[in-house]
Design a protein that fits this description.
The complex is a heterodimer of chains A (114) and B (111). Chain A is mainly β and 114 residues long. Chain A contains no helices and 11 strands. In chain B, strand 5 and strand 6 form a beta hairpin. Classes of the chains: A mainly beta (114), B mainly beta (111). Chains A and B meet through strand 5, strand 9 and strand 10 of A and strand 3, strand 4 and strand 8 of B.
């Protein structure tokens, strides 16, 4: 069983569109995250959610909004897509906030905005 | 969280030990050293972490100097599948769980 799964794996869309990336974890973890890896391969935290509460927002534009319907899911909604949003987005999860930094990552969603 | 410094790239012969260094001279007493790796096009993978004692698991060993200002990740018998970017991360275990990734070390294992 895949621990952290993301869909879709690839997403190509036009500027101005709105899109969503889904993430699910079956590990029973309390905290989930979204990371962005740009073309220069830098990995940066975007959001984390703990028990449906946003606990980190690293100055991400408000066009990006995480939505957590339950503890096992953290979806990423992006409005009015821009060329600069092209990147690989990784979802991750970890046990109790702060208890361990052993995070499990999904395989990533490669977003291309044209 | 303290900053880390790693060499940008290293080579290792297949079957030999890969020793990846990391400097974290500003580490504080309650900060842990974590190692992750990212194999091409995959999500990062946790390897090991430690506070001050040396640690070993099925993937690797972590050697932390006595003053805790540097550490070495050891892959005892590197294989071609160990080719990846390796990230050394220092953080408080009690802090929020987000990870601050640097540039890491690109390890190339060669036949």
């Amino acid at each position: 069983d895949t621990a952290v799964s993301q869909t879709p794996k690839y997403l190509v869309t036009q500027m101005g569109n709105d899109k969503s990336i889904k993430c699910e974890q079956n590990l029973g973890h309390d905290t989930m995250y979204w990371y962005k890896q740009d073309s220069k391969k830098f990995l940066k935290i975007m959001f984390s959610y703990n028990n449906k509460e946003l606990i980190i927002n690293e100055t991400v534009p408000n066009r990006f909004s995480p939505k957590s319907p339950d503890k096992a899911h953290l979806n990423l909604h992006i409005n009015s897509l821009e060329l600069g949003d092209s990147a690989v987005y990784f979802c991750a999860s970890s046990p109790l906030q702060g208890a361990s930094a052993e995070a499990f990552f999904g395989q990533g969603t490669r977003l291309t905005v044209v | 969280d303290a900053k880390t410094t790693q060499p940008p790239s290293m080579d290792c012969a297949e079957g030999r030990a890969a020793n990846l260094p990391c400097n974290h001279s500003t580490i504080s007493g309650n900060e842990y050293v974590y190692w992750y790796r990212q194999i091409h096009s995959q999500g990062p993978q946790y390897i090991i972490h430690g506070l001050k004692n040396n640690e070993t698991n099925e993937m690797a060993s972590l050697i932390i100097t006595e003053d805790r200002k540097s550490s070495t990740l050891i892959l005892p018998h590197a294989t071609l599948r160990d080719t990846a970017v390796y990230y050394c991360i220092v953080k408080h275990r009690g802090s929020q769980g987000n990870l601050i990734f640097g540039k890491g070390t690109k390890l190339s294992v060669k036949p």
